Amino acid sequence: MIMALTGKLMQHSAMLSTSLSDKRILVTRAREQCDDVIKMLQSRGAAAVLLPCLQVEALPHAIADGVAMLADFSDVLFTSANGVHAVAAAAAGNGGNLNGLLAGRRIAAVGGRTAAALAKLGVGVDIIAAHASQQGLIAAYENRGLPHALLFFRAEEGSDALADALSRQGVTVATIPAYRTACPQQDAGDVIAMMQRGEIDAVLLGSAKTAAHYLQRMGSTALANRPVIVAISEKMAESARRLGLNVQVVAKVASFEAMLDALAEYFDSGSK
Fold it and tell me: Is the pTM of this model over 0.85?
């Protein structure tokens, strides 16, 4: 029975890989975050075409203000790997490191990717939200104990849901905008030409902002809708659809690996 199950899993894995063979997949992540997705595509026989639709800009002065307040806070929260890298770069620029900077504080992360970014820098993560959202972290803090005072490194345009929820429970929260995201301005002419020739089979969209910037870079909703559009979550798919994008594939869980699994199943079903 175990051998039969193993055989089915191997057959399923081979089928997923074959389904993406020779497909050209547009990768829209920030350029410095593309490597893992490119390797995933290559392992499945697909070709990655890069069109970064996010550009991450650190906000060093705001980070410095946050670091100066660290002694007053029991807990530190990161909601993305971008925030981790921005604060780590600021620490390195001052001759230190992130692990030393955060010593003695309880560290929380929203999602496995953020926790992995911290772990790579030697930072132990005490709390990881079961659901990669601020709502998920609210639940995690309720289970593990509220912070005495929380220093929250996030995107400039992030949600205030967590800060508001904790403040209502008497927790002091300082929100630090560690970085902002913008739409890259580099010429997209080569990718647009490939799209016009029908040479892009699918596009991977990992956030609502990425979707908006993808549409902006294409310059045409009709052109942007030519390939199969894959969304990382149903919530993100809804945001993309409101922009006029025809999302056809949604990952079952919020990860790029799951996006590729869902896309492989879509192609294998003969949908395109």
Answer: no
